[in-house]
Amino acid sequence: MDYSTLLVEEQDGVTTVTVSRPSARNALSGRVLAELDHFLSGVLVGPAPRGIILTAAPGPAFIAGADIREMAVMTPEEGARFGALGQRVTRLLEEVPCPVVACVDGYALGGGCEVVLACDFAYATRRAVFGQPEVVLGLIPGFGGCVRLQRLVGPAAARELIYTGRHVDAAEAARLGLVTAVFDDRDGMLAAARAVLGRISGNSATAVALAKAAVHASGGTTVAAGLAFELDAFREAFTTDDMREGTAAFLAKRRPVFPGAIPPVGAREPLLHD
């Protein structure tokens, strides 16, 4: 597929995906979702990058939401197909084996907020704004917001945000747990995202993928079901060469050499070696 709404760049094992529809405040049209679907499906079948930064073209919005002009004329059947595509994209963000960091500068509303919720974690600038304002349009979150927001901020806070449709600034988003860290500007945010993915890149990609799968599979389940998912992934780790290398390196007091790992420049030894 020739991407017309995405910019994809690779550097040092990390892929930066930029949603680029600045004239529409980077709104999620059917075309944007189809291109994200195509890109993420390719990552799922591999080879996967060591990490993904998901951001958007500079402007007032990260992703202002789903494309209202398209939705306004949709039939119920078309709306269902559009929602299913949005849900598929957000599921793929969870299912790709590498970590995905959302970098939010500006408005992340509606579908834009739902994309953020599906990433592994999010960084934001001080001018970032989040919200699920669909009820103002006579709609509800349809790309996973009703499901994921309550898991992240708790049921009561999620209900208040969804029912009122109000916006929250970056500071409140951090207090709620929507974002992991807030930065003064876009450049600082992106540099921090590259740095954290650089540190992750020095670890076992297999172990990171197994941990990600266990975290997402166990979310929202019972403790017993979650522990069963975790135990399956834990057992799988024992079948890998990375586990043998990692434990051998620990006992030998040396840095592990995992296939494809990219040690960050000047990185500390792993915390277990402290």
Task: Give an account of the 3D structure.
The protein is an alpha/beta fold. It has two domains: about 5-200, 2-enoyl-CoA Hydratase, Chain A, domain 1, CATH 3.90.226.10; about 205-274, Lyase 2-enoyl-coa Hydratase, Chain  A, domain 2 (Orthogonal Bundle), CATH 1.10.12.10. The protein is about 45% helix and about 15% strand. It contains eleven helices and ten strands. It has helices at about 30-45, 70, 75-95, 110-120, 145-155, 155-165, 170-175, 185-200, 205-220, 225-235, 240-250, and strands at about 5-10, 15-20, 50-55, 60-65, 100-105, 105-110, 120-125, 130, 165-170, 180-185. The protein has a six-stranded mixed sheet with strand order 1-2-3-5-7-10, sandwiched between helices. Strands 4-6-8-9 form a four-stranded mixed sheet. Strand 2, helix 1 (about 30-45) and strand 3 form a beta-alpha-beta unit. Helix 1 runs parallel beside helix 3 (about 75-95), helix 3 packs parallel to helix 4 (about 110-120) and helix 9 runs antiparallel to helix 10. The longest helix is centred in the first third of the chain and has 20 residues, at about 75-95. It starts with 5 loop residues before the first strand and ends in a 23-residue tail after the last helix. Residues about 265-274 have low confidence and may be disordered.
